[in-house]
Amino acid sequence: MKIVQPLTGLSWITEIKENVFGSLIKLVAKYTAIAVISLFIGLYARVQYTVLDRTGSFVSVPTFQNVYLHQFLYAINDPTLDLSKFPKIKDPMAAMWWVNTWVMANIGQEDDEVVYGKSEYWAKASEILKNGRDDCDGHTILKYQLLKHMGFSPEDLNMVLVRVKGAPYWESGHAILRARVNGVWYLLDNLEWSVLQEPNPNYITEYYINEKGIKPYRVYGG
Q1: Cβ–Cβ < 8 Å for 177, 90
Q2: Closest CA to 129 of 79, 193, 174, 81
Q3: Domain ranges, ordered by start, for the chain
Q4: What does the pLDDT read at residue 99?
Q5: Which residue blocks in the chain are alpha helix, DSSP H?
Q6: C-alpha to C-alpha distance for 186 and 108, rounded to whole angstroms
Q7: 61-216 domain in CATH 3.10.620.30?
Q8: Helices 92-106 and 136-149: angle between axes, nearest 10 degrees
Q9: CB 188 within 8 A of CB 177
Q10: Residue 187 · residue 160 · CB < 8 Å
Q11: 217 vs 185: CA distance, rounded Å
Q12: What is the per-residue pLDDT across 167-221, written as a single tens digit (0 to 9) for each?
């Protein structure tokens, strides 16, 4: 049997101090660790759920999505659009090539600030045809409407928001059209005369948009 020696003198006070001090150290370390972890989780969530819009301002991802979906739906709601002068090409591959070539050849490249006096504006196809020039989102919207005119379903069309690899974030925003034929997705880009099969290694895809809504390619925050 173990014999417990009674504490003598001030040794018992020293032992109590050591025990209390040790417990306090452990408690402080525990809650410090919890606080640091919580801080990193908060910072991570802020970064993951916050993006730079095309003007270089920070906005929440839900706000970003709602703004661009609203702009897209506004642009394709175009009751005055008359595409009767354009052919209806039945072969979908031929239609894609024709649309991409026609828009590249007939719609100039110009910033929204010059054409509309706004830093960012997604124009309707009727406006684009009237002005004869627009930027990447204008080219994309016009191609979207022309392919619908030729028989493409909205389920087979997406306006795709991408980032150009290697460019500064606030200058890297770009829009292209994505079209599906026989289960294969193709890209119609205002920087490329050819119709290319997805993916384009020069881009980082962020969002797909059509009349059904907006879908993140990368789910921010998990």
Answers
A1: no
A2: 81
A3: 11-48, 61-216
A4: 95
A5: 11-48, 61-76, 92-106, 112-116, 125-131, 136-149
A6: 22
A7: yes
A8: 140
A9: yes
A10: yes
A11: 15
A12: 776 667 889 999 999 999 999 998 889 999 988 888 888 889 988 888 877 543 3
